[in-house]
Amino acid sequence: MRPEPPPTGSDGTAGSANPWAVVAAVLAGGWTVATTVLLQVAGWSVDQVRLVSGLDRWPWLWPVVSLAGVLLVGLPALLLALLPRSRALRATGRAWLAGALALGALGALRALPPVHHELYLAALAATAAGLALVAARLPARRRALPEGLGGEPGPAATPDAPGGEPGPATAAEDGEPGPAMTTDEPDGAGRTARRASAAGGADRRRPDPITLLAVAAGLALLLPWAWLGALGGLLETVLAALAAAALGALAGVLLDGRFWCRLGGGEPPRPARLVFLGGLVGGVTLLLLAAGTGQSGAQLPALLAVPPIAFTLAALYAATRRAGTRAATPVRWLVGLALFGPLALADPEEVSVLLATTRDVPFWVAAAAVAGLAVAVLLAVGYGVLLARPRAVTPSRRVAVLVAGVLLIAVGVVDVVPGQPGLHGERLLVVLREQADLTGIPAGTPGRAGRDARAAEVYRRLVATAERTQGDLRRELSRLGLRPRPYYLVNAIEIDGGPVVRAWLSGRSEVSRVLVSQRVRPLPAPAPTSPGDAPAPAGPAWNIRLLGADRVWSELGVTGSGVVVGSSDSGVDGRHPALADGFRGGDDSWYDPWDRTRSPNDAGGHGTHTVGSAVGRDGIGVAPGARWVGCVNLDRNLGSPAHYLDCLQFMLAPFPSGGDPFTDGRPARAPDVLTNSWGCPPIEGCDPRALRPATDALAAAGILVVAAAGNTGPYCGSIADPPAPYPDVLTVGAVDRNRRVTLFSSRGPAPGGAAKPDVLAPGAGVLSAMPGGGYATLDGTSMATPQVAGVVALMWSANPALVGDLERTRRILRETAQPAQPSYRSRTPQDACGGDANITGAGLVDAYAAVRTARAG
């Protein structure tokens, strides 16, 4: 007598599917998607707002966001996993619950600083691998049960099975159901299937067609990243590959054969149901996994491109039932390759709103994500048609090998030809403990002769200290192939290396600390430069008149002649009509450590605008008779401690193109005053002390360093990024046309309590030059800073004896400054920043009064 088969629900598995439970599952899925996406976007947005505002990132932000995701997503998933009778619904709940828990563990890793990307990738790989091992060994996944979770019965017995026993499903090696002999299959076919399964054991070392098709799909998803992205360093790339493999293994555990079997309506699965329902539920699971993948910002493209591959995985699973493939293997390959793209070929530090205004990294990351989404949709359709039809034929191994091989070659060709081949990782700046002793340098005679003598002595001491203390370490670093690049302005060496090298060097007695020296990755196409859309000024611009610089020209006859202003920025368009005649010329007036260009140029526009405000002709510059020299320390608005040092060294002792800064420097050719509309925040690798020896040395040489306060107001204490907080730097805030401090202008006190900024200048709606011969109005303390450098040029031109006398110059600027109106975030006492001096400094610079006082001696 045959036993009655157990009741079968609408899903084809034991247990009925209550319509209300189905509705609840749909609502839970929508809730999961919306909550996950909103939390990820909100967390990244908070990170970006604090970055733009110049505030420290909150290390606790992502652990809190991740915990919120676990609670908000995990509770509905837990109810779905426990309450419905339908196995398909319970399998859905379990998958989403496991995904939420994985998101909680992986997302919390973003507490690690983004600048330490290798450390984050190592932690991601270890955590994902650990989660995969734990999940695979849970009691509910016992290998002894070919079907069913937690001791549930397997597929219902078929009425034609001999003796009423369960249908003939053979357990696969990983506990998943093997190929089943269906009731309409002849006995001979069943024996053939079993023989094929047995023979497969001897051939297990060779990739099967389904796995190869999964690899091919993963390579197709890599194509947009190979074209539009770029790899980091060697260690970074290896760790990204390990992390992607571990995440693929975790996905293979979450989306194993039991999952697909239940979502597909039993054994054998119903192809249409499997692809549709399995793709939807699996896509939500992959969304949760992608949300925990990558540092803040890197997970956003994965959220778009990874979830749709669940439909491709469902089609692959339909084929595994015919080929006898372990269901988890294609999942591991496809998910791992899909996640390798955003993990390895996008730098999370560059996925920033700071670069989003042009076609920079955020634009290309978004383009790669959209292209990846399109590829995922095409794969889902193609694999669904090819593999998930009721009588579909699995391609032969030869065909699968050919497809995977062609796509592997395509990825390589795309990377080499239209892509950005090679490794483009970060470097390290090793700061030595001993710095040069610059005390007791004689003041010498007043004016330029004394300044030149001081600069020569400072250069001699700096180089001697670096040569004496760096020799042994440089030889050892060269022997290890770490490509050391020495510096003397700060006694430091830049090298290749990651966390291991950093830890090794940090433990050496001669090393003070090791900083990350950021490098931007190349772009598929240069970011366009704005040529400026404002008309040329008809006379002196409003900011020139507000400072009184036009009166200095007309009434005092002083334009800045005889003074040289040095600019370290994004570059300068040396052919701009307002700037061409002011270039000093010679073989030591231009330096580009990024791209090694040999003549002044500017790919960004920021540097052209600032130099124009300092020395530009035609009514835009404060000191149109002064000359300028330039250096490129910003590439696409990002810098690094080493490249900031490159330019500051060049300003102390310029050297000819291709020359050695240690032996070919010419201190007598140093510019007189430096304008610096940049800061080095922690995300670029700097710490508060990073550039302090450099500005100390420049001050000892009699070179005045003028620096922007920053645009992170109205927060108090926001003058924090070097070099603005240093006492030997003249720090400049910004005012508008009404002499009111702009809200964006950073405020003091500086770290240690020093009052900053020192003075103010116009910084809202400032008209100046742009690359290509045009003009534009820009806002920022970057715009205010070069105007103060121009005022110093006027003062020193009026009285050459003041050249190099930094203390007296600062005193004149402070004493002649005009009152300015402070601005506040609100009217609470805390917004006073300890006094208006930390908002307005000494006040608005008065060029006319300062030059008259300087001329009077």
From TrEMBL:
Keywords: Hydrolase, Membrane, Protease, Serine protease, Transmembrane, Transmembrane helix. The active site is at D569 (charge relay system), H606 (charge relay system), S782 (charge relay system). GO terms for biological process: proteolysis. SUPFAM superfamilies: Subtilisin-like. PROSITE patterns: SUBTILASE (PS51892), SUBTILASE_SER (PS00138). The chain crosses the membrane at residues 20-40, 60-83, 95-113, 119-136, 210-228, 234-254, 274-292, 298-318, 330-346, 361-387, 399-417. It comes from the Bacteria. Residues 145-204 are annotated as: Disordered. The keyword Transmembrane helix applies. Belongs to the peptidase S8 family. This is Subtilase family protein. It comes from Micromonospora palomenae.
